[in-house]
Amino acid sequence: MLVAERQQNIVEMVNERKSIRVTELSRIFSVTEETIRRDLEKLEKEGKLSRSHGGAISVTSPDSLEVPYFEREIMNVNEKREIAVEAVKQVAEGDKLILDASTTAWYMAKSLPNISLTILTNSIKVAMELSSKHQITVISTGGILLSESLSFVGPLAEDSLDNYHVKKAFISCKGLHLDHGISESNEQQARMKKKMIQSADNVYLMIDHSKFGIQTFSHISNLGMINHIIADGKVDGRFIKQLKDKSLHLIKV
Questions:
Q1: pTM for the model
Q2: Which parts of the sequence belong to the HTH deoR-type domain (predicted)?
Q3: Could you say which DSSP state residue 63 is in?
Q4: Residue 77 half-sphere exposure, CB side, CA atoms within 13 Å?
């Protein structure tokens, strides 16, 4: 992982969790605690976080926790692409799907073949990516545009999901906690994803290794609502065992 990518991931994690310790960051990124301290010192000088005794704390308010789309596009890119390719394997011609506004969903949209599908999404990026695939019918939720994530949220977007029922929903999240379920940094996105889960027969959670063991600002659902978890090969073995103990289906790429 590049230094800049690690530091951006640190900022996102601090913003999501409000605070985090040096020891945990060292374990997550497999670098020394001294390396993490240098990262935190640099990020504090840039005004992206504030250092505390033994860790760092967020300098953002809950309403501004969402990381801009262009920044998320370059985070864990290889892992997201691998997850997206595996997700496409779960799609059959004629399926009716939901794709959320995550960057992994965008990579999935890029990888989908031009076959007969109906896709409901709140993502501008996903809709634009699919616009050239003429056999795919795209339905946009509409709603309030969040410029940070290029997605629609709010009452109109949520209500539109009540009008549809799909076979499969592919969503991502900012954190997966074995006891507290899945969560998002933005409350409006969390509400949308909760609606997406309710609108689907099968829910596929697309999540890279950095999100495991994390609980963020706004709860989406418990793990019992998730049918399949698609993750990259860097997931810690202890999480894999705990998922199996809970009879959760993990698809590791």
A1: 0.74
A2: 3-58
A3: G
A4: 9
